[in-house]
Amino acid sequence: MNIRLTSGKILHILEGKSILQTLKREGIYLVSSCGGKGICGKCRVRLLEGKVGSVSTGRLQPPDIDRGIVLACQTFPEEDILIDIPKESRLVVGDRIEVSRSRDLFELFQSLNAKIFPIVRWVSLDIPPPTITDNNSDLERLKKAASGKGLKDLRFSHGFVSSMATALRNANWKVNLAYTDAPEAILLSPMEDKNRYGISIDIGTTTLVVYLVHLTDGRLIDVGSTYNSQIRYGDDVITRIIHASEGNGLDELRDTVVSDINTLLTPMGERHTVNIECIESAVISGNTTMLHLFWGLNPAYIREEPYIPTLNSFPLWKAGAAKLNINPQAPVYTVPCVASYVGGDIVAGVLASKMHRNSEIALFMDIGTNGEIVIGNTEWLVTAACSAGPCFEGSGITHGMRATEGAVESVRIDPQTFEPTLGIIGQGKAMGICGSGMIDAITEMFLRGIIDRKGKFVKGLETERIRKGLEGPEFLFSSNEGRDIVLTEVDIENIMRAKAAVYAGISLLLQKVGFTFDDIERVYIAGGFGNYLNIEKAIIIGMLPDLPRERFRFLGNTSIAGGYLCLLSESMRKEAEEISRKMTYVELSVSRRFMDEYMSALFLPHTNMGLFPTVEKLLTIK
Amino acid sequence: MNIRLTSGKILHILEGKSILQTLKREGIYLVSSCGGKGICGKCRVRLLEGKVGSVSTGRLQPPDIDRGIVLACQTFPEEDILIDIPKESRLVVGDRIEVSRSRDLFELFQSLNAKIFPIVRWVSLDIPPPTITDNNSDLERLKKAASGKGLKDLRFSHGFVSSMATALRNANWKVNLAYTDAPEAILLSPMEDKNRYGISIDIGTTTLVVYLVHLTDGRLIDVGSTYNSQIRYGDDVITRIIHASEGNGLDELRDTVVSDINTLLTPMGERHTVNIECIESAVISGNTTMLHLFWGLNPAYIREEPYIPTLNSFPLWKAGAAKLNINPQAPVYTVPCVASYVGGDIVAGVLASKMHRNSEIALFMDIGTNGEIVIGNTEWLVTAACSAGPCFEGSGITHGMRATEGAVESVRIDPQTFEPTLGIIGQGKAMGICGSGMIDAITEMFLRGIIDRKGKFVKGLETERIRKGLEGPEFLFSSNEGRDIVLTEVDIENIMRAKAAVYAGISLLLQKVGFTFDDIERVYIAGGFGNYLNIEKAIIIGMLPDLPRERFRFLGNTSIAGGYLCLLSESMRKEAEEISRKMTYVELSVSRRFMDEYMSALFLPHTNMGLFPTVEKLLTIK
To answer: Taking a C-beta distance cutoff of 8 angstroms, is the pair A553, A102 a contact?
Structure first.
């Protein structure tokens, strides 16, 4: 049996495989946030010809079903079929993403008073060439010369020795030796060769960023970024962990992300005529699951109570072991993690925020695919993961999508007519709603009295925009060519759960250390989503605490920024390690008080309106 | 174009490839001592049909040429051809070789007063399982438990950590941890698992031997041996080094020998139900070139003046890096070398001989594919390589062959009729002459007056056995079915060169240390060939010094014996390292005095008959 696409392509179906599995095997990836479990309703395809068996229609609406829409993960062809894949179902990965360089990185580095001190150090060796009467082996000669420069007990890997003999002779026995402080010999290069490069990599659950850095002066040479193609196996860390435990899923996930990185690296090297082999060190940052997957470590125990990672502090392994396409001898430094759900990305973030150096009490929030928070100052740090889930990236929301072309990113609703005005990324037709659009939409619906403080639609309003859908009431934001964009009551509930988790997490951490919201002198917001977050509206829905607005700072991607700092300087690496050791991790999932806080936060903005004086005022004025 | 074999097999010929290359590509290997340079004359095949172009006929004799014999390496088909491959041209590798266990290895071990102390040590750890309130990572838990047993600053490779999480849980957190004294963590096993295995491997230029050893009691569980399939690229180290420098020759040579070892290992594991993964350490012994090839290190500089190996002392690398089919984490200890032409096999040999522990002055000789000698005692050791070449294994001798079925291994010549009586391995037809047969033949020809002291045929003798061949005079030992077995004057010259090199090497080393032959209190003869050497006759031709016969001892394969000792005990490894450091290497190739000694030794038994009193007496009596 075959699947024929409207493009003309024909795919052979293996016995018992769904449409989604068949497409995946042929390299055609659909949005599949739930990893193919029939839950997210994103892998919609339109059946034009042929008979199929469907396990479930999930969240599909009758008009869609009438049009022949099926869920690819739940549908099994029973004969040759012809399908059309709508644009919004296609998983767009491999695209380069624009990265905002929100601040001058090197300025940040200098503000930390750190000296450039990369992972790899170099020493010049002038080795006497061998003669018939001085016939020590190459390695003995090298050892002796290194010892003369105070470098004793060097370790030599098989990889290093394999290319050593020729490298020594090519350089006419005048070489620069690269070594780590193990101490281990890493590379040899001719003495005149002075260019030194490193890369810093941030592996997000959703996006990947790679920095190519000149290690002598700290110059950022190039930036590459792309979606993490692991998305094809699910949107959040949990679906990835589940996939890793199935068949050769771990290898698949590992190969996928490493291949993404290598695909970014090759053109960067070419653009700047940097031989990939000359990249002498790398830093990897990311959440604990991403770092386990990058290193091919089974993340299963991260998900099972009591949630134990294989490691938080990673040894300095080699690029060869990581399969990174740089010099295979290059050491790869992994920013240390704190716990299963507070990873190296958060440690890097704290480092880049400098909150660990100041006496003022700061709140650090990274609202990405997950939501992690840190509170503290130079003396103490507490942290927790809020399980906010990836809803702000579109997952679990009927028409949720990432902030790419076609996403509704801002919403205004007319107080009288309830007619919405939409801001759409790329100015084209609305294909879905992204995180900032969701917060805007809920704020507007709340302020206009369309939804109540519990997030439920107010009954009896004079508008056809509120209608009854399959999953209950919903608000219609846009409609074109048979594709309606709505927010359902269930969607709003999901978003409120996410915002409640974030706020409750902050509350609980504050309680743990005996402080109140007013004690927070600074709020740092990190993560790609952070940049587009409207503070005012995030306060109105009760996601962020109602603090003076000037206390909020957007830091952008602090995971990559912290990785960059670690790439450049040993003192930064030591600080990252100290941060990871110093942070007290609070496991929210088992806390009774967290559940209380969470329930209280499931209102707009909160059960206790006293916590949100400016919102109360706003509602009163109205 | 195709080559058809008489067996019916058809091989496609690639443009410009010789018969030898075509056969090799299809996995059919011929004896090709010179590595396909048209010199050795061993890769003979018979052309039955079709037209060919021949570059050279090398050492082929007119009757052979008349019969259609061509050299496969020098012959290029010009159309479809049919050939027959004579049995003697087929390279027999992969066969198991009988290994004489000439002495009880464990007795040797005990006689050295060494304690069993393998490369890998074990410690039992009872690790507290994690809980929600004690949520340190797996690695932190393991480190803490190890530290509690005094094991601090352990290193953890990526390979170790990759399987750690599951291993800890499978063992219910009660594990045995294997580590080396780096200190580095190597393996985890459940606490009840007590079997520990290691392997010792001797990589000879011609043969490979593998011992499977129980590391708890030192028991030799099994022995496997085979020819080193690298023979297909040439017989001696020089042809191998040349091959390594051509195209992907280095990889080919490396893969070939590692595949030989792995092919021996699998059935050994099966026979004794030893899981290959449970082999926790390995020792490799061999000459410097073989060790470089095993580790995939370019041996080019071994061959070029000033003859420098990449390393003599090898770091403890992993079985995974070596591609050995045992636990990839298992450390592989390489017996240290002394110089480019005195390798770990000789260091292992000295160790097994115990000469380095005694005050008596001993001479150690390893007459294998090359010829290495050591003189010394507990206070000093000098060593040299004699470049004897592999002629005693058949290379460079018209009808030379290894000591396998069909080889003439002993010769008696009737003093009156000059008719020879041959001892043939396997009692069948003579197919060639092996090393011991050559020494016998020359001794007999010398004693019967067939050749003079210069090794030249005496003119005017009444026998048709002496005849004129293509390369000058030759002696016919056997003739059947058109295949004559001869020793030519050129062959005799080659053998005399080899024996002269050995004797001159000993002379020069003795001069260096100010001793004479009479000071040698013990002569140890090692190597596979050693076992079949007739001491009396080797003295008559002047290969061995004319010393009282009771001073000679055969030790068999001391390379594998020394490897076994190193596998079992740290003190043995330390002794091997001390031996390698202590040995003074003398480079003969650049010594003017060596050339003088060598020229003097190019007689039977020697120019100075006074050095061979018992031979002089024998000749006088006659």
So the answer is: no
